[in-house]
Sequence to fold (233 residues):
Amino acid sequence: ASSLLAGTAGAAETEAEVVARTRTVTGNGADFIAESLIEADVEYIFHGCGGGINRFFDAFVTRPQLKNLLATHEGMCVAMAEGYHLASGGKLGVVIIPRPGIPNATGNILNAMAHRSSILVLTARESNKFSNRRGNIEIIEWSEALDPFMKWHYKMQHIDRVPEFTQRAIKVSNAPLGGPTFLGMTEDLYVQESTVEIASQEMFSVQGRIEPEEAAINQVAEKLLNAKKPLIV
Fold:
């Protein structure tokens, strides 16, 4: 508890300090997602297919900070994102999956939840104007269907709150214990434009580093040194 409380030292800020750590961005929902990811130091986007999510790439192509890696299957891009998270020492893996491909990805999303790996899954559905044209595929609420495999999920419906919920999803995914989070949105947010304030991701971060007890470490080390045939499982 003391270690966690130490991480909150200096957390109180004046209003001026808070304003200094925000910036104004004008664009559409995809632009706001991209800028929120950049604030979180995201470098790589893993995606499978581009059907229905092409507007994401319209936002990414003008931002060289974000690099796209294409997988040939939705489950594979989730595995790649988790592998990146593990190999990078805990950086967030970001996945973009077209709506019909989500069932293909659920197995590896479940794996990420079991491993407590920090990944953010983004998806989009078509405009509400044609929401019933493909029957059950269009009307499924994927955030609800994926609830057992997710640490947190949300369906974004208001463009001005896209940065807020994107950064919240990042925070929840990264906070110990980690796990996958899920954000859905409609194409309506691609074409709407607005001006929003995007805060530094540091303002959303949860410090979860807990220092171990030195006496306990010494006790374990002594047992290992004195063991004739030590075995660590």
